[in-house]
Amino acid sequence: MALIKFPTKTVNTDSVNPFVNSVFDNLFNDSFISDRLVTRVPAVNITETAEAFAIELAAPGLQKSDFKINVDKNIISIGVDKSDEAEVDEKLYSKKEYSYTSFTRSFTLPETIDYSNIDASYTDGILQVKIGKKEEAIVAKRLIEVK
């Protein structure tokens, strides 16, 4: 298989129809479209200790009330659905975009979790969800004596 580099613009395309080229260049280089093409799912870190699982979700710029955390059987879903519509009285802007923040992350929970021991906190743009384990799932550590 050979890799071939195609030129971004040919020499005579602007002379054929410069209007079409400038429209497509503006359309695909517009920040509105390029921002929407990037996925908007926050990064997640999941850690496990002997007593609990911890989910850390990076979601800056939100408030505690924006999050909806649901547990259904063995799936935990963390979601946000927020829209910001700012009222501007003066109409001098040439471009205005509404801001919508919406995402849902779902994770499958193991059988060893304690459903009554799930806590969530939101500080400094990080949502921290702590999911405790059942007592029988916590492995007791002990020293084995060699005889």
TrEMBL record:
Residues 35-147 form the SHSP domain. CDD domains: ACD_sHsps-like. Pfam families: HSP20 (PF00011). Transmembrane segments: none annotated. Signal peptide: none annotated. InterPro entries: A-crystallin/Hsp20_dom, HSP20-like_chaperone, Small_HSP. Belongs to the small heat shock protein (HSP20) family. PANTHER family: HEAT-SHOCK PROTEIN 20 FAMILY MEMBER. This is Heat-shock protein. It comes from Sphingobacterium paucimobilis HER1398. The lineage of its organism: Bacteria, Pseudomonadati, Bacteroidota, Sphingobacteriia, Sphingobacteriales.
